[in-house]
Amino acid sequence: MHNPQEIRSRLARFREELKRSGVKATHQRLEIFREVIGSDEHPGVETVYRGVRRRIPSVSLDTVYRTLWLLLQRGLIDTLGPSHNRVRFDGNVRPHHHFICRRCGRVFDFTSRAFDELAVPSEVKAWGSVERAHVELKGVCGRCREKKNDPFLKNKS
Amino acid sequence: MHNPQEIRSRLARFREELKRSGVKATHQRLEIFREVIGSDEHPGVETVYRGVRRRIPSVSLDTVYRTLWLLLQRGLIDTLGPSHNRVRFDGNVRPHHHFICRRCGRVFDFTSRAFDELAVPSEVKAWGSVERAHVELKGVCGRCREKKNDPFLKNKS
DNA sequence: TTTCTTGCAAATTCTTTGCAGATTA
DNA sequence: TAATCTGCAAAGAATTTGCAAGAAA
């Protein structure tokens, strides 16, 4: 995402969101956020770290980690797949879809005729062969919505 | 997936697929595969390991890792999100979708009006509040399809 | 100020590898 | 038997944590 106008407006909303939740808008947080929204490459932690270091050479890797989780918790950025680190497997090869809680990482399966019937855009066919299609819905599950102020608990399954 | 009939037929296809690619159908591989397809919980490596140990107490964690990657390469099982270990972030909050190569882990973004307009099933609304929806298409990208016999290279971004 | 954050370094946790003995085809 | 696998143990990555010094409100 490279539109300067849009970036500016997201940075403004970012400051507000931090203020609202009583979290400080530090230089590091601003730059880490800017780095992620400015990239189209779905960067990993290490990549974000390298990018931010160009502007803040003294930034530490653990601050990058802490900040990314914070942004994720606040819903300011997203992850590919479930948010937690470990790989998780799915042995179900029949068509099905997922609802993923971004707080606890729980994954709910569901089926939907409408979702199964999606046509693959020709743009995508040019990139490679598509073998599976899943819809991934993300949000916060009922259980997590209740216990609002809990620490970001890591899913262990 | 608990239908015994279906499990049997998948195990049979599993043996064939292994034979076809000149890979041995060992006891461990059978049981690891069975464990994954028999679970609805999108298990992590550790969970699969614990499950398999109930039947093969001497199995080692590294065999579980090696086997899961093997099954994944062969397309016999799937992962949630991109297959490689590291978390990857996405700062793009505008509606968009992904095509993910299951070999190299590259992720291509695309937009699609039809995909954006999917209605959230009421079943899902009962589980929690949905904030984002992405379609995830998975397959093998053009680049990876060429170099067929390359080792499973890990994406580093 | 007062409270929250950072950077450092050390600790964990997760994943991969080399190799000799065990197993499959 | 020949070619692959497995288990072990040790290495290598990735991620998290405690704490004193530093920065924001």
**Which spans of chain A have pLDDT < 50 for at least 5 consecutive residues?**
149-157
Instruction: Tell me the greatest interface.
Output: A-B, 75 and 75 residues
Tertiary shape of chain A: globular
Question: Average pLDDT value of chain A?
Answer: 88
Largest sheet descriptor of chain A: 3 strands, mixed
Q: How many helices of chain A?
A: 7
Instruction: Report helical residue fraction of chain A.
Output: 40-55%
Strand runs of chain A, count: 5
Strand order of the largest sheet of chain A: 4-3-5
Radius of gyration of chain A: 18 Å
**What oligomerization state is this entry in?**
homodimer
Helix and strand content put the structural class of chain A at alpha+beta
How would you describe what is shown here?
Two copies of one chain form a homodimer. With 157 residues, chain A is α+β, with helices and mostly antiparallel strands. Helices cover 41% and strands 17% of the residues of chain A. Chain A is built from seven helices and five strands, in the order ααααββββααβα. In chain A, strands 4-3-5 form a three-stranded mixed beta sheet. In chain A, a hairpin with a 5-residue loop joins strand 3 and strand 4. The longest helix of chain A has 17 residues, at 4-20. The first copy, chain A, is globular. Chain A starts with a helix and ends in an 11-residue tail after the last helix. At the A-B interface, helix 2, helix 3, strand 1, strand 2 and strand 3 of A face helix 2, helix 3, strand 1, strand 2 and strand 3 of B. The structure holds a DNA duplex (25 and 25 nucleotides).
